[in-house]
Every structure is written in C-alpha cells, then in structure tokens.
Write a structure and sequence with these properties.
Elements lengths: L4 H10 L3 H7 L18 H5 L30 E13 L7 E6 L8 E4 L3 E8 L8 E3 L20 E7 L6 E6 L6 H6 L4 E6 L10 E9 L12 H6 L5 E4 L2 E2 L2 E4 L4 E8 L6 E4 L4 E7 L2 E10 L2 E3 L4 E7 L7 E7 L15 E8 L25 E9 L11 H5 L3 E3 L11 E4 L3 E9 L4 E5 L4 E6 L2 E2 L4 E2 L1 E4 L4 E7 L4 E7 L2 H5 L3 E7 L1
Length: 509
C-alpha cells in the first residue's frame, strides 16, 4: 500500500514531534544540553531544514589528500592499525568551530590502504558518549567483526577487528557506523572513511589517481551539525553543503591531455549523485568490487547511489587554462516531503594547469576476468515496501509512528530475529523487488554479489554490493558466502535503515 502525500502531510502536521528531535540529538541522555530537542509542531517544522549558517566553507582550495592510517606492523603482508572514535572540533565555517564525531580526529576518517591477501587487525576505541560499531562496507570479512548492531562497542570500550583479505580482491571500499537506530545520526556527525585495496595486477597502476569521498552536511546558525527533521527521516537526509574529501567545491589541477583514475565514493546518507564532467571523456572501469570485465566508454553521466563506489578513467582537455566542473545533475528519486534537485550541483573544479603534457594512455579492451557463479542452489524473493504511518502509535511521537513504515518482506527489523537462512558454499539467487514509489539502494553485507539482471534484462558481469532499485523495479543477483554467521541486508538510505528497512540472513556451516 502506497502512502499518499496529502494524508501524510496532514498526519505530520498534527503529530507530536519532540520525541523524534530528541532522538536526533547526539547528546540526549548524556548530561549535555538538549537545545536540538525542543518541541516542534506544525508544517514549518516538518519541511524546513534547521537554520543555515551565515557563511559557507571556503571554495577553490586544492583537493586534499586524506591522511593514511599508519601501519604499526613490520611484518610483510600484515596490517595493524588503531582508530580512536571521539568528538573533535574543526574550523569548517567562519566563526565557531564545528563539533564532529571523528575517526582519528579528522573531518573524515583516514584512508586505510591495503594489499590483496593482507592479514588485517584494527583496534577500535570508542570515546563517544554512546555506543557505536564499525561496518567494513563491501569487504568479505567474518560477520563477527563486521559491526553488527548486537556487537556494539560501549562508550569507553574497545574492539579488535581482525580479518584476512582474499588474494584476488581489489577496489574501493569504506567503513562507517552501523548501530541500530543511531547510524544516520552518527554518519551525519561525520563518521566515515575510505578503504583502497590494491592488487599486483592492477591494469591502471602508474596512472595519476585521485580519491573523491563525497558527503553532504547541514549546519545550524551556530555552525553545528543540525538535527534531523521529520522530513529527513521520511525522505532521507540531504545536507545543503556538499563536500569532497571534507572540502567545499575544491580544485583539482591536472596536466594537459592527462588521463586520471578517479575513485569516487558516495558517502552521503541519502543523496543520489548523477555525476557529469562536461568537456572530459569518462570511462567506467570499476564498480563496488573492483575492475569491470570490459570498460564502459563514452559516458556523459553516471548515477552513484548512497554507499556505492565507482572507478573512472577521465581524459582531460589539452588546452592549458581550461576549467571544467564536476557536477551532480538533477535526479528525482521520489521524495515525499522535500523538493527534488532541479539544477546541476557543482562538486569540484578541474583546472588544466601549465604542466608538461601527459603521455597518451592506451585503454585495455579486457580489464578483469569475472567468472559467473553458476547455477543457484537456492532462490529467494526479497521485497522492499512502504506503508502508511501507524497512527495507533501517535502517543509515542513521530518516531514511533514511522517505525513500521519502511519494510522488507512486510516486516520491520528485529535485531534478535533471523529472516532468512542459508548454508556456507551455496550459490544463492535473489530477486529483489522495490514495491514502493521511492528509489531504494539495496545493500548486502559480507562481500560482493554478481548483478545478473535488472527488470529481467541481463547485465554485463560485475561485482557489486550496493545497487539502486527504482520504484516497481527488480534486480537479480547471485552470491556465495564462504563463512558462517549473520549478515544484514537493507536499504542504504540510512534513515530508512534506522527505521527498520533491514533484515538478517543467517549462514550456517
């Protein structure tokens, strides 16, 4: 059953909103001021984002290179690191510093750079006032170290995440919180970081390379991260300030005629990025799980959903002084309470600098060998859906009313319930259906799956872990799990995940 906009707005206008606002305050219940959680009523509180800052961050600064997590191991093939998760303050805007939650004190988490086959051990120290976890998004790690909400790290606690990477794995991944009901707010507070895994047979080794971590933010007039609004919970939060590597509209200088590898991560909670770079030639060479079998050439735009990554080869013009704009084009994803984007959104300037012209690059016709998983042992059908708010829960406020809106197979997430069961080594085929009016990006924990078809139409072979589902659309994927344990699958609009659009697959030995 699909929610009607008029019914929804009428319900929200009369609903008590203070429990939702209190939920959004990161310090609620921890003895901190709760100015974000004052009662809100009426239509203005539903729609309007929190007050905007008086000024924007500075634009045009050189694109920052993210710091790398230090490897404390001296043994070959072993990586050992420490991540402290704590509150920090950063001068993002003119005036008062912004309070963020950080991995190792940065506005973004450090880059973790690994090699295929590495043995990895990372110690996570939680210095926040609330519990958290760390999910290794896209990596085939043991479920016991993958940030399941049941394995939350208490304030003051520590956790050691240890895993060994497959010898054939490469690509761009990331890490972020995954405590149930708290994920969206913790990511809004800036908890996210990238992972790059390199392989000795990388066809693009030696090319100039840039990592672009795209996130968005909303500030209040005190320069602080603004609280979620009810509209944020309904549609997914889109901050008005879009950042690349934590910077506002930075500048990347390139050589004339240069071919550069761009690794792009959409670390936004809900914003869809329809990427375009007019004046340059775009070729997609990789997805979530690394290299494609063959390059996709001649692209003018590319959709990147929340949580998704892509690898592009971009050939820039030869004329010194020419300036290009990486933008996100309008994309309507079916929002219910907030307007859709209507104009191109600038993300980054690319300037052709006065440098020696780059040597021509010859693009290989074959990039990777992707062996099909083969005939499935089990087939499943998973349905993402929405239903009207439960007005019987009106006494509990907006969060209680919305809790059962976003569903998988007709149910909201229960941390102690197993929804699907499977076996180690089995090849599973999933048909995932979006039975709703809004786009939902589907994510499966525990590694990569092969995307087989969209709406029954066969797709070129690729390894993925996050794929968009348009309204009334379906996708077919195949996956095999080689270790037992419980894995989550969910919508990667983080607010929808927090509201229950998530399920558990238990894989048995």
């Amino acid at each position: 059953m699909i929610m009607q906009r008029r019914t929804l707005l009428a319900a929200l206008a009369s609903a008590p909103l203070w429990p939702l606002a209190a939920r959004a305050n990161p310090h609620a219940g921890h003895g901190m001021p709760m100015h974000d959680s004052m009662p809100m009523n009426g239509m203005a509180a539903m729609h309007a984002p929190s007050s905007s800052p008086d000024a924007l961050p500075p634009a045009g600064q050189p694109l920052a290179t993210l710091p790398r997590l230090a490897n404390r191991s001296t043994e070959a093939g072993t990586f050992s690191g420490v991540i402290d998760i704590a509150e920090t303050r950063h001068a993002l805007l003119p005036g008062a510093p912004t309070r963020l939650w950080s991995y190792n004190a940065g506005p973004l988490g450090p880059l973790i750079e690994l090699n295929a086959g590495d043995r990895v051990a990372i110690t996570l120290n939680n210095r926040l006032p609330e519990e958290t976890t760390v999910h290794w998004h896209g990596l085939p790690v043991d479920p016991r170290v993958d940030g399941h909400p049941r394995d939350a790290i208490a304030p003051g606690g520590s956790f050691r995440a240890g895993f060994t990477l497959p010898d054939n794995l490469s690509g761009t991944f990331w890490y972020h919180p995954h405590p149930h009901g708290l994920t969206a707010r913790q990511v809004a507070m800036s908890l996210a970081g990238p992972v790059i895994i390199r392989h000795r047979n990388d066809p693009f080794a030696g090319l100039p390379e840039s990592l672009l971590v795209i996130s968005d933010q909303r500030f209040d007039r005190d320069n602080q991260v603004a609280a979620h609004t009810p509209a944020d919970w309904m549609d997914g939060r889109e901050g008005e300030v879009v950042l690349v590597n934590g910077q506002y509209r930075p500048r990347l200088d390139v050589a004339p005629n240069e071919t550069r590898r761009l690794r792009v991560l959409n670390a936004c909670a809900a914003r869809y990025l329809l990427l375009s770079l007019p004046g340059a030639t775009l070729t997609r060479v990789g997805t979530d799980g690394g290299a494609l079998a063959r390059p996709e050439t001649g692209l003018s735009q590319l959709l990147l959903t929340p949580g998704e990554r892509t690898e592009l080869l971009v050939t820039f013009p030869a004329r010194v002084g020419q300036s290009l704009q990486l933008v996100s084009l309008p994309y309507a994803r079916g929002k219910m309470m907030q307007p859709e984007q209507t104009a191109a959104l600038p993300l980054m300037t690319v300037a052709v600098a006065d440098r020696a012209p780059a040597a021509a690059f010859s693009l290989p016709a074959q990039l990777a060998t992707i062996v099909p998983l083969g005939r499935p042992d089990i087939r499943r059908r998973v349905v993402l859906s929405e239903r009207p708010m439960d007005h019987r829960m009106a006494g509990g406020g907006m969060m209680a009313m919305m809790k059962n809106m976003f569903l998988i197979d007709g149910r909201t997430y229960d941390m102690n319930r197993v929804d699907l069961s499977g076996k180690v080594g089995q090849i599973e085929e999933w048909e995932v259906v979006n039975d709703s009016h809004m786009d939902h990006p589907f994510h499966l924990h525990g590694g990569q799956f092969q995307l087989i078809a969209r709406n029954g139409k066969p797709q070129p072979p690729s390894w993925r872990d996050t794929v968009n589902l348009a309204p009334r659309a379906s996708l077919t994927l195949r996956v095999r799990f080689d270790t037992p344990g419980e894995r989550l699958y969910h919508c990667h609009i983080l607010e929808h995940e927090d509201l229950g659009m998530m399920g558990t697959l238990a894989v048995h030995a």
